[in-house]
Amino acid sequence: MARKYKILIAEDFAASLKIMREIIQALGYDFRTASNGYEVIHALKAEDFDLILMDLQMPLFNGFETIEFIRRNFPYPKNIVPVVAMSGRDYASELNQTYKDEGFDGVIEKPFSLDRLDTVIKDVIRKSLTPAKDKKAV
């Protein structure tokens, strides 16, 4: 049996969070939730995650501030946890490199299908498991 990935969903909008919980549960992943950047930071201090799905517009600490904090302040290996930006912008694919420059491992546009989200989750986790020397060569 394959290992069940553990995902942290960072979303402040209650209706979107409800949908995300249902989708992640339907995909069979274990998950926790956070409604702002501070909760993401506290959750990551307390637990290990295989992936964070992070909304960009959250109160207190937005997605960009949160990922910067994680990348700069958490010890290895928590500082390299894969993070996928969830963007409501319809041009998110054009900004993919911008998100990567900010420290995100991927971006997905809202709304997204169950299949699209599952593909992104698996691709980003698979890439994160690639040895560092191979990542540099890509």
Secondary structure elements and their pairing?
Blueprint: E1 6-10, H1 14-27, E2 30-34, H2 37-46, E3 51-55, H3 63-73, E4 83-87, H4 96-101, E5 106-109, H5 114-128, H6 132-137
Parallel strand pairs: 1-2, 1-3, 3-4, 4-5
Helix pairs in contact: 2-3
Outline:
45% of the residues lie in helices and 17% in strands. The protein is of the alpha/beta class and 138 residues long.
Unreliable spans: 133-138
- State the helicity in percent bands: 40-55%
The termini sit apart by 30 Å
SSE series: EHEHEHEHEHH
Beta-strand content? 15-25%
Structural class: alpha/beta
Q: Strand order of the main beta sheet, please? A: 2-1-3-4-5
Q: How many strand elements?
A: 5
The CATH topology label is Rossmann fold
Number of helical stretches of at least 4 residues: 6
Main β-sheet: number of strands, strand sense, barrel status? Answer: 5 strands, parallel
| Mean pLDDT, all residues | 88
